[in-house]
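Quick check before the chapter quiz. The format below is the same one you will see on the exam, so make sure you can read both the input and the output lines.
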Amino acid sequence: MLVWSGLFQCDLYHWGVLSPVMAPLVGSILRIEVKFCVMLSLSILCKIAFADWLCQFCFRHLSCNNLPCEPHNMPVILQSRIPYDVSTKKNLPGIAPLAAEGWLIEDEAFAGQMAERDRLLSQMPERVFAESGATPEAKQEVFDEVLALLRNRESYKVNSSDVIRPDGVRVPLDGDPLLTAARLVQEDLCLHEKHGDEHVLTAAVLCFPASWTLDEKIGRPLSAVHATVDEYNVDIGKRVQRLFDGIQAGRPMWRFNVLQYVRPDLFQPRSENDARSTDEDYGSGAYTRTEHQALVRMPKSGAVLFAIHTYLVKKSG
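Here is the expected output.
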């Protein structure tokens, strides 16, 4: 059989059925296929057609630089401007007071970002939503706080069983309360609850990660979550924990970061094992990305919500 398939491979080339590149590959596949009973039932011509298609499929996908689990052809969703000055870098934690309703922001990228959020939650929920020991009371309280703010906004229509967003999408008010809340607003929502001496990331909807992954951070305390941040030393860690302890209900705080990216993708995960120096997309490029990061105390449960609003603009010139 091996001799036959080798001769058949040469005939395929001389007959002009396949190219000189494809003929050896088809011959190899034909040598392997005899082990599979399903192939034995096919005609020779069907085998050739299948082998040719398989080779082309492999060549096309093996040449792709993206991992199979990564989304392809992401839409470019940009804001026209950043509403605060990012030219001066602030030392950690760099916190400032924020208006009571200022942690939920609507901007011109609302429709695009929400469509991308819905797509990610639908196609890869396990990568953008996670929880580890979150209390139902804390998640429900986040939902209630979000809904209370949206009731006062003309751009939303809040009904008893659903909410109509500014982009016209109707969101049912059922299912996991944190997940539902995250489908209503542009912000990623990360819930922290006090366990022992530190706050722990117990649940999160993170559709727009900026070079980190949710599955590596969920269930970890603040010190471990920020372990890969160069500036985050023991002293900074203690200051951040005191900040989480001292935030008062109705008086949120906020800070921002500034990042540079080659690609404008909002979904930009990166593993802790991948050093930033080896990340070809991070640290330079045509796009400036900044996160408006708000810390909000839940009045009943005492949990702290970390709400992240992502701005992405293209550099001028």
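If your answer matched, good. The chain has a mean pLDDT of 82.
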